[in-house]
Amino acid sequence: MMLALVGTLSTSFAFTGETINKQALNAFRNEFAGATDIAWTAGKGYYKVAFTMNDHKLFAFYNSKGEFIAVTRFISSLQLPHNLQSSLKRTYRRYWISDLFEMVTNDETGYYATLENADTKIVLKSIDGSNWSLYLKSNKE
């Protein structure tokens, strides 16, 4: 499920014309009252809603039953916990950050960072906020 969320942030997809689950609509309205610029899309087995709240662009995800999965937002490296920020600077100084977001579920906050250099692209994750672990690694062609 987490891989699907990570992929959806960097992959665009069109609304399938599918009716959005009423439970998802109600859950979203209750959780994010006051949201603006709301745009729903449907993926395989989940719904994604992009919206603005308090001048921040957010993305909420709901399963096909309308149950909340997670909310994500793009962040800058300065918004990371200090230890994660330091670790990126120290360990991955030969890479640049091409994507960085925070993901909040019902019981945890995680961070995903996509780093690149001329030859390699890596995705790091931190679920506990204390350290990074390698999530994906690929060579550029």
List the helices and strands and how they pair.
Layout: H1 2-10, H2 22-31, E1 36-43, E2 46-53, E3 56-63, E4 68-74, H3 82-91, E5 96-104, E6 109-116, E7 120-126, E8 133-139
Antiparallel strand pairs: 1-2, 2-3, 3-4, 4-5, 5-6, 6-7, 7-8
Give the strand order, joined by hyphens, for the main sheet: 1-2-3-4-5-6-7-8
Element string (H = helix, E = strand): HHEEEEHEEEE
Measured between the Cα atoms of the first and last residue, the distance is: 27 Å
What portion of residues is helical? Answer: 10-25%
Describe the structure.
Helix content is 21%, strand content 44%. The protein is built from 3 helices and 8 strands. An 8-stranded antiparallel beta sheet has the order 1-2-3-4-5-6-7-8. The longest helix has 10 residues, at 22-31. It is elongated, with a radius of gyration of 16 Å. The two termini are 27 Å apart. Residues 1-16 have low confidence and may be disordered.
In short:
21% of the residues lie in helices and 44% in strands.
What structural keywords apply?
141 residues, 8 strands, 8-stranded antiparallel β-sheet, 21% helix, alpha+beta, disordered N terminus
